[in-house]
Design brief:
The structure holds 4 protein chains of 4 kinds. Chain A is built from 8 helices and no strands. By secondary structure, chain A is mainly α. Chain A has one domain. Chain A is globular, with a radius of gyration of 17 Å. In chain C, the strands form 2 sheets. In chain C, strands 6-7-8-3-9-10 form a 6-stranded mixed beta sheet, with helices on both faces. In chain C, strand 1 and strand 2 form a beta hairpin. By secondary structure, chain D is mostly helical. Classes of the chains: A mainly alpha, B mainly alpha, C alpha/beta, D mainly alpha. Chains A and C meet through helix 1 and helix 4 of A and helix 2 of C.
């Protein structure tokens, strides 16, 4: 089981290393979002500082959605899921393998985005441990939900618009928790940062269980 | 299930008339008979719309989730492959979305009068708007043309996952807002509902339930008619394909 | 010898279009069956139905004895499917792609080199991204990905497309070897002449149905 | 906007929304019903084809 998960994840990451879509296109795009936020908010320093946590997670949400679409795009090369379904890899490993590779890509995205937000929005980190924990928690939740809702929308014709519509309402609580946790870590407000981080892990756990149960079913049904 | 070509039958006619009469009575009761609130004055009359709509919206989504579960569990045993449950889930969801929309409209109007702003990020309304978008996604998923069973299964799984999500959304939004409200003075406490107001509210809830039920039954039948039409088109397509002539065939060039 | 594929009056719908409108076909082990028919006659859909990739709406369908209306995923581990388009990971090298398929199917990484050699892909092309290969070379990589798992039922959709004469002969030899060693091969093809001398049996499809079945034997 | 006006708008809007939705559901049921009930007899295959595409 673990071998299959690592096999699939390694395959995805090798494709990513070759194609450089995640770091080559999605990361710069999310950096652009962070800059554009400043344009929108008229580079109003206090406002950007207060909003830093929230804007960061909106950028990650946007990048995460694109990475989720990309993760399934490469499986439906010929326009259908046939080979992915015919794959002798067990369905649970497919789900966890895809989630693992998406998780690593989202973490890479966050590693690029965090310094940018800290510099551009001129905020200091008061609690590094909380910042990292929240970042990881968000990445786990984003990747697991992304793979679950991604497979539901991926095989369909209108997937590029349907996936965000299905995914973002589900990720709204994660965005909420992530923002509050980051604001605590950045010392912008005294809030229960660790409780928000654990909430994100709970959401990720719930979706992992649901994903393990429903992934095989959804893979067949589109 | 009767195969009535129209969606009206004796049952729905009775239900429909009842709904209209009850509706008129509700308007009279809610707008004129029941007293204004000591604090909110006339604005409290929004209560008789807002609370029942939330009630029916959540009720419809519960019905959708229960039907979806039954569809997934029972589809093998029923001779119609559980499609009855799938249709129920679809019709309840759509009616639920309509009432969630009404909840938002009445909620915002009421908020404007009592709190002075249309949108005050109050926990309940924020959760409702997320629910609204979630089930709009569900309806979008149902609209994609596919084999009824395949579409049904896909929609059923989404309904169940979305239902599991409701408490998560509810909890996180509640927690977020209570933190916030503790900081600022909490305004707009619940008006005490006693006496005439209480009965009016109860009556309104009953009326809206009748209207909701009437809508779900009709919407269910529309889905059933759509399925009959699709099946007949399918039979027509199958027979036309079987009679394809060897040379230039009538149905040429479609996807193999 | 039990029948590998046994379809009776099978009807299947993709989206809202009836791709199979009542198919009757039985294939025994070791047979090589050619599916003929115009574009849109249902060849691809029949192959995908055998692989359990589409829902059977009506009729009875069995592959390796599994009832395809109850659990259509069951026989997949014995089946190799070569789709109309090569479902290849274009960013991987040829060898990496086939190695992934080999290990995923429970085989060894080494099997990949052997499979690529058998399909006649020049070894200097093995460590080249698939996106840089020609259509014929990509077809060989796809065929190698199928061979490497040594399936018992081969389902091939236009396998000879984009292959030159030499490669076609190689492919025919591979298919013959597979059939001789007990595998069953069903392939769809346009080029009637070339494929007929290879297959033991020709089945013609039209309008989603089998209209001719020349059990040559 | 005075309280009475708000209440009037609230109730008005609610009844309008419910009425239009009910009308839409019933009329959609009637059109498809008529199409199925009478549709097959006179309409040629082609016309029914066009109905199909406009509907879903």
């Amino acid at each position: 089981m673990l071998a299959e998960v690592l096999l699939l994840a390694r395959k995805d990451l090798r494709i990513e290393r070759r194609a450089k879509v995640a770091l080559g296109q999605v990361a710069p795009l999310t950096l652009l979002i962070v800059v554009v936020f400043a344009f929108a908010l008229d580079a109003n320093a206090p406002l950007l500082e207060i909003g830093a946590g929230g804007l960061y997670w909106v950028a990650v949400l946007y990048g995460g959605t694109l990475l989720t679409q990309r993760a399934f795009e490469l499986e439906t090369e010929g326009g259908n899921f046939d080979d992915f379904r015919m794959s002798p890899i067990k369905v649970h490993s497919l789900f966890l393998g895809k989630s693992l590779s998406l998780f690593i890509q989202i973490c890479a995205l966050e590693l690029v985005l965090t310094p940018a937000v800290l510099l551009l929005y001129d905020v200091q980190v008061t609690d590094w441990l909380l910042l990292i924990a929240a970042g990881v928690a968000g990445a786990v939740a984003f990747s697991v939900c992304g793979v679950l809702w991604g497979v539901m929308a991926a095989g369909l014709r209108v997937r590029s618009t349907l996936l965000p519509l299905l995914l973002i309402p589900v990720l709204a609580p994660v965005l909420l928790a992530g923002s509050r946790a980051f604001e605590t870590a950045l010392g912008i407000r005294a809030d229960a940062g660790w409780s928000w981080t654990s909430l994100m892990f709970v959401i990720a756990a719930v979706h992992t269980v649901v994903g393990l149960a429903a992934f095989g079913f959804l893979l067949e049904e589109n | 299930m009767d195969d009535s070509k129209m969606t009206a039958t004796p049952l729905t006619r009775v239900l429909g008339i009842l709904g209209i009469v009850a509706g008129v009575l509700m308007a009279v009761l809610g707008l004129f008979v029941s007293p204004p609130d000591v604090v909110q004055g006339e604005a409290v009359r929004m209560l008789y719309l807002h609370v029942p709509s939330i009630w029916i919206a959540y009720g419809s989504f519960v019905l959708t989730s229960v039907s979806s579960l039954l569809f997934l569990v029972r589809s093998r045993r029923r001779e119609d492959g559980g499609r009855h449950y799938d249709r129920m889930a679809g019709s309840a969801a759509e009616v639920g979305v309509v009432f969630t929309g009404l909840t938002l409209i009445t909620g915002m109007l009421w908020g404007k009068v009592t709190w002075g702003t249309y949108w005050q990020w109050d926990a309940r309304l924020t959760t409702t708007v997320l629910l609204f978008v979630t089930y709009l996604g569900y309806l979008a998923l149902r609209r994609l043309p596919a084999d009824p069973i395949v579409r049904g299964r896909r929609a059923a799984v989404m309904a169940l996952i979305s239902f599991i999500n409701v408490p998560i959304v509810h909890y996180s939004v509640d927690w977020w807002r209570t933190l916030h409200q503790k900081a600022s003075l909490s305004v707009g406490r619940r008006p005490e509902i006693t006496g005439e107001m209480y009965w009016t509210l109860l009556y309104s809830a009953l009326t809206v339930t009748i209207v909701g039920a009437w809508l779900i039954v009709h919407r269910y039948r529309v889905i059933r008619l759509e399925e009959i039409r699709d099946e007949e088109n399918l039979k027509m397509l199958i027979s036309s394909r079987r009679h394809e002539r060897p040379t230039g065939s009538a149905a040429d060039g479609e996807v193999s | 010898m039990s029948a590998v594929v046994k379809f009776e009056n099978v009807v299947a719908v993709a989206g809202s279009f009836p791709v199979l409108t009542g198919v009757d076909i039985t294939v025994q082990e070791g047979e090589i069956v050619l599916l003929q028919g115009k574009n849109g006659a249902g060849k691809t859909s029949l192959l995908r139905a055998c692989a359990g990739l589409i829902r059977i709406n009506d009729g009875s369908a069995q592959v390796f004895g599994f009832d395809m209306r109850i659990n259509r995923q069951a026989p997949r581990r014995y089946i190799g499917l070569l789709g109309h388009e090569n479902n290849l990971y274009r960013d991987l090298w040829a060898i990496e792609h086939v190695e992934f398929r080999a290990v995923a199917g429970g085989g060894q990484r080494g099997d990949a080199a052997e499979a690529l050699a058998r399909v006649g892909l020049a070894s200097r092309l093995w460590s080249v991204p698939i996106s840089a290969l020609s259509a014929g070379q990509r077809r060989k990589v796809a065929i190698a990905s199928l061979i490497v798992n040594r399936p018992r039922l081969w389902l091939l959709d236009e396998p000879h497309s984009a292959l030159d004469a030499v490669s076609r002969a190689d492919l025919n030899a591979i298919l013959k070897d597979a059939a001789d060693s007990g595998a069953t091969v069903i392939f769809a093809s346009h080029e009637g002449v070339l494929s007929e001398e290879l297959s033991s049996r020709v089945v013609t499809l039209r309008g989603g149905q089998v209209v001719e079945d020349s059990s040559a034997r | 906007m005075s309280e009475v006006a708000t209440v009037a708008i609230g109730w008005g809007l609610t009844f309008v929304v419910i009425a239009t939705y009910s009308f839409w559901v019933v009329s959609r049921g009637r059109t498809i019903g008529r199409e199925l009930g009478i549709g097959e007899v006179q309409q040629s295959g082609q016309e029914q084809e066009s109905d199909l595409s406009t509907d879903n």
